[in-house]
TrEMBL record:
SUPFAM superfamilies: lambda repressor-like DNA-binding domains
Transmembrane segments: none
Entries under Pfam families matching the protein: HTH_3
InterPro entries, per database record: Cro/C1-type_HTH (IPR001387), Lambda_DNA-bd_dom_sf (IPR010982)
HTH cro/C1-type domain location: 13-69
Gene3D superfamilies according to UniProt: lambda repressor-like DNA-binding domains (1.10.260.40)
Recorded GO MF terms: DNA binding
Name the record gives this protein: HTH cro/C1-type domain-containing protein
Matches recorded under SMART domains: HTH_XRE (SM00530)
Length: 78
């Protein structure tokens, strides 16, 4: 099961992708990774998660700060 922080970052990615009207395949093309990986990141059941390289790349793609992918305060695990 994914950690809360991983769910948070993947939700930010999904929301930004949907705001642009992009499919998972389109985003994967911009990132140079497989659409299956994007699907796995957005899935709560798959262990794949974003790393700092991905967050930095997404910030460039979405023209925003990498900070937007992280919460303002720490997320404590339940």
């Amino acid at each position: 099961m994914k950690k809360e922080i991983d769910l948070y970052t993947s939700n930010v990615m999904r929301n930004k992708r949907l705001e642009k009207g992009w499919t998972q395949r389109q985003l994967s093309g911009y990132m140079g990774i497989s659409s299956i990986f994007i699907n796995n990141i957005e899935s709560v059941r798959k262990p794949d998660k974003l790393n700092l390289y991905h967050i930095n790349l997404l910030a460039e793609i979405f023209d925003c700060s990498p900070r937007e992918f992280l919460p303002e305060k720490p997320i404590l695990e339940k």
